[in-house]
C-alpha cells in the first residue's frame, strides 16, 4: 500500500527513498521551498496583494487551509477505525498528505485572482481553442513547470499528494467540463487513478478533506477581512438590506454547482434571511463578551465558525457512488443545513467583497493589464525578446510539447500582482524603475 501511495511518477526509477525522512515530509519540503509557493504572497486572495498588512493573500490563505486540514485529519484518524485498516489507497487520511495538498491547492492561480483566471481562459479559448483553469494549472506547475535539482521538470511529488490535490478528477478538455486537469498531466493522473482502482469521478478522502477545509477558510476568513475593511458592516441596516439579500439569492441560483446543496429542499430567501439574522445576533453577543472591542470580536467570530464547521467534518458512506465521503455530519448523515449555511457565508463574502463597484473597477484595470501583456508576448518573433531568457531557454528545450500560446499563458499566470503591474509599466507607462531590477 505504501509503495502505491509513495510512488513518484516523475522521478527516475533509480532514485532511492529517504531513510531519514518520510516521503510525504519530502513532498512538504519541496512545496514550501518552491518559488511558486513564495510567489503566493504576492497574489490576491480577496483584496489585492499589497492592500495592507492585515489582509490575507493566497499564501496566508493556503497556510490557514493547511492548518485546519491537518488538525481535522488527525482527529479523523483517531475517530474512524476503518482508516487504520488501509483497505484502499484512496481511503486513507495522512495528515502530512492533507497538509501538502492544502499548501499546493492554489499554486495555479494567476495574478489578480479570479479575474486573471477568467481573462486568460477567455483569450486562450477565443484565439487558440485552449482552456485555462487554476486547478488544472496546479498540475502543470507541479508536474511540468517547477524545477528541482535532479529533475527535468516538476517537483516529482508522490502519488498520494498528487491525487490529494486532484479534487476535480476529470480531463478538462472534455465537452462542457469547467474544471479538471489538462491533457498531458491527466494522462499521468489517470494512470495513477487506474492503478489505485479509484471509482470514476471520485476523489480520495484526502482531496475531499482539503476541498472542504478550503471552503471553511473562504466562509470564515474572507468575512473577517471584509469586516476589517468595512465592506461588511456589523449592524442591522447592512444585514437587513433587501438588495444584499436579493444578490445573495441570485448568486446561489446562478451557481453552476448549486445542485450539491439541495436548495430545492428549502425556501432560499427565507434561509438567507435566517442565516444573516443569526450571524448578526451572534456578533452582538460576542461583541458584548469582548467588552465591545471590534478586533477581538472579529477574531472570536472567525474562531467559533471555523470550530463549528471543522468539528462537524466526518466520513460517511457515499451510497450513490459506492465510495466514502468527507462531509459536515450530524447524527450519522450529511448536515445539509450546515452545508448550506457555509455556502451562504461564502456568497456573503463574494457579494460584498468581489461585487463591490470599487473592487470591480480594480478588476477592470487588472483585465486590461493581463490583456495587454498577452498582446505584447503572443507574437513569438517579438515576444521572445521581452520575456526573461531563462523562460525562453526552458521553452526551446521543451517546445516539442509546449505551444507558444500555452507558454505565454504559463509565463503570465506565474506573475504576482505587483510583477504584472511592473512589467505592464515597463511596456506601456512613460516611466518605470531601473532596468537593472532583477526579474
UniProtKB/TrEMBL annotation:
Which Pfam families is this protein grouped with?
A: HD (PF01966), HD_assoc (PF13286)
| One of the record's GO molecular function terms | dGTPase activity
Task: Tell whether Transcription is among the UniProt keywords.
Answer: no
Q: Which biological processes are named by the entry's GO terms?
A: dGTP catabolic process
| Ranges where the HD domain occurs | 58-219
InterPro entries associated with the record: dGTPase, dGTPase-like, HD/PDEase_dom, HD_domain, PHydrolase_assoc_dom
Q: PANTHER family this protein is in?
A: DEOXYGUANOSINETRIPHOSPHATE TRIPHOSPHOHYDROLASE, DEOXYNUCLEOSIDE TRIPHOSPHATE TRIPHOSPHOHYDROLASE
NCBIfam families reported in the protein's UniProt record = dGTP_triPase
CDD domains xref list: HDc
The answer to whether keyword NAD applies is no
Q: What's the domain of life for this entry?
A: Bacteria
Recorded protein name is dGTP triphosphohydrolase
Keywords, A to Z, come to: Hydrolase
Amino acid at each position: 500500500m505504501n509503495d502505491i501511495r509513495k510512488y513518484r511518477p516523475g522521478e527516475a526509477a533509480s532514485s532511492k527513498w529517504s531513510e531519514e525522512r518520510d516521503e510525504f515530509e519530502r513532498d512538504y519540503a519541496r512545496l514550501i521551498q518552491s518559488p511558486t509557493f513564495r510567489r503566493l504572497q504576492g497574489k490576491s486572495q480577496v483584496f489585492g496583494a499589497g492592500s495592507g498588512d492585515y489582509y490575507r493573500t493566497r499564501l496566508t490563505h493556503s497556510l490557514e487551509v493547511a492548518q485546519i486540514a491537518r488538525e481535522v485529519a488527525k482527529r479523523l484518524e483517531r475517530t474512524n477505525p476503518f482508516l487504520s485498516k488501509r483497505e484502499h489507497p484512496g481511503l486513507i487520511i495522512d495528515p502530512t498528505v492533507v497538509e501538502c495538498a492544502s499548501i499546493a491547492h492554489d499554486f495555479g492561480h494567476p495574478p489578480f485572482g479570479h479575474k486573471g483566471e477568467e481573462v486568460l481562459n477567455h483569450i486562450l479559448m477565443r484565439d487558440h481553442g485552449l482552456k485555462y483553469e487554476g486547478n488544472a494549472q496546479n498540475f502543470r506547475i507541479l508536474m511540468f513547470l517547477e524545477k528541482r535539482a535532479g529533475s527535468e521538470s516538476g517537483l516529482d511529488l508522490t502519488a498520494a499528494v498528487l491525487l490529494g490535490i486532484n479534487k476535480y478528477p476529470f480531463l478538462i478538455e472534455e465537452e462542457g467540463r469547467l474544471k479538471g486537469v489538462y491533457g498531458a498531466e491527466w494522462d499521468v493522473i489517470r494512470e495513477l487513478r487506474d492503478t489505485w482502482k479509484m471509482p470514476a469521478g471520485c476523489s480520495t478522502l484526502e482531496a475531499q478533506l482539503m476541498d472542504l477545509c478550503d471552503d471553511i477558510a473562504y466562509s470564515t476568513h474572507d468575512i473577517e477581512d471584509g469586516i476589517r475593511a468595512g465592506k461588511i458592516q456589523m449592524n442591522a441596516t447592512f444585514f437587513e438590506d433587501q438588495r444584499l439579500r436579493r444578490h445573495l439569492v441570485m448568486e446561489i441560483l446562478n451557481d453552476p454547482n448549486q445542485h450539491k446543496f439541495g436548495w430545492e429542499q428549502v425556501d432560499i430567501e427565507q434561509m438567507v434571511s435566517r442565516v444573516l439574522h443569526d450571524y448578526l445576533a451572534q456578533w452582538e453577543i460576542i461583541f458584548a463578551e469582548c467588552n465591545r472591542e471590534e478586533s477581538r470580536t472579529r477574531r472570536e467570530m472567525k474562531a467559533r465558525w471555523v470550530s463549528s464547521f471543522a468539528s462537524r467534518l466526518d466520513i460517511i458512506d457515499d451510497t450513490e457512488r459506492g465510495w466514502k465521503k468527507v462531509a459536515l455530519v450530524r447524527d450519522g448523515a450529511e448536515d445539509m443545513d450546515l452545508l448550506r449555511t457555509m455556502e451562504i457565508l461564502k456568497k456573503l463574502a463574494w457579494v460584498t467583497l468581489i461585487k463591490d463597484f470599487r473592487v470591480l473597477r480594480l478588476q477592470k484595470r487588472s483585465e486590461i493589464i493581463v490583456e495587454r501583456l498577452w498582446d505584447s508576448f503572443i507574437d513569438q518573433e517579438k515576444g521572445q525578446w521581452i520575456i526573461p531568457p531563462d523562460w525562453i531557454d526552458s521553452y526551446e528545450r521543451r517546445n516539442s510539447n509546449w505551444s507558444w500560446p500555452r507558454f505565454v499563458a504559463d509565463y503570465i499566470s506565474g506573475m504576482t500582482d505587483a510583477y504584472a503591474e511592473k512589467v505592464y509599466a515597463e511596456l506601456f507607462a512613460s516611466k518605470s524603475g531601473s532596468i537593472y531590477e532583477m526579474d
